[in-house]
From TrEMBL:
Organism from which the protein derives: Sorghum bicolor (Sorghum)
A GO cellular-component term linked to this record: plasma membrane
Protein name: Late embryogenesis abundant protein LEA-2 subgroup domain-containing protein
Swiss-Prot/TrEMBL keywords: Membrane, Transmembrane, Transmembrane helix
GO terms, biological process: defense response to other organism
Transmembrane segments: 16-38
Superkingdom: Eukaryota
Length: 199
């Protein structure tokens, strides 16, 4: 049995419609997989760092610094929800001397947005107990040189990605704060205007 010209046109049109429909379904599936099936981890950066004081005052570590921690959610359909508090430890030469809670469990960062948290650390505490003799020696060396090389932030927490992903994903990043510091005996304020990437 042979198809006439009209039947051939109807068959071609149906085939074309079916092909287009299948391609559209596949495209929607790919978009949904990229939106909800692929999880991109949050990115953490530090900016607007200001050092008003960091050094020895007699036998004490005296510090006054502030900065902004930015937690960016690169996912375009999923929010990043804190399953556990986001905590930060401020360390010098590997030893913690201050810290804070940046975000409570249950708070979240919307898709393709950033949560920016201002952190201020001010104090005066016994240097030897905090840093040990090696840390104190390193502090003297770096403040004399006018550049803090051993100062860092350590962030820890857990995230879940909603509404689809189950399970918890740990945040454990370090932000190296290589900051200039005013020479000993001066009261200058030093501001760092570059963005520091955490890893």
């Amino acid at each position: 049995m042979m198809l006439d010209e009209g039947d051939n046109k109807r068959y071609s049109t149906r085939t074309l419609c079916c092909t287009c429909t299948v391609q559209l379904i596949l495209l929607v599936m790919v978009i949904l997989v990229l939106a909800y099936g692929v999880r991109y981890p949050v990115r953490v950066t530090v900016k607007d760092a200001t050092v008003r004081r960091f050094g020895l005052a007699g036998t004490a570590l005296a510090y006054d610094l502030s900065l902004t921690v930015s937690v960016h959610n690169p996912n375009w359909a999923m929010r990043a929800e804190h399953a556990a508090p986001l905590d930060v430890h401020i360390c010098f030469a590997g030893r913690r001397f201050d810290g804070a809670r940046l975000a409570a469990a249950g708070s979240s960062v919307k898709p393709e947005e950033s949560d920016e948290i201002r952190l201020a650390a001010v104090g005066e505490r016994t240097a030897a107990a905090l840093l040990g003799s090696d840390g104190v020696a390193e502090l003297v060396k770096e403040t004399t040189a006018g550049q803090l090389e051993s100062l860092e932030l350590k962030l820890s927490g857990e995230l879940t990605y909603r509404p689809v992903h189950v399970g918890r994903y740990k945040i454990a990043v370090t932000c190296p704060l290589r900051l200039p510091v005013a020479p000993a005996g001066t009261s200058g304020v030093v501001v760092l205007d570059k963005v520091i990437k955490c890893h």
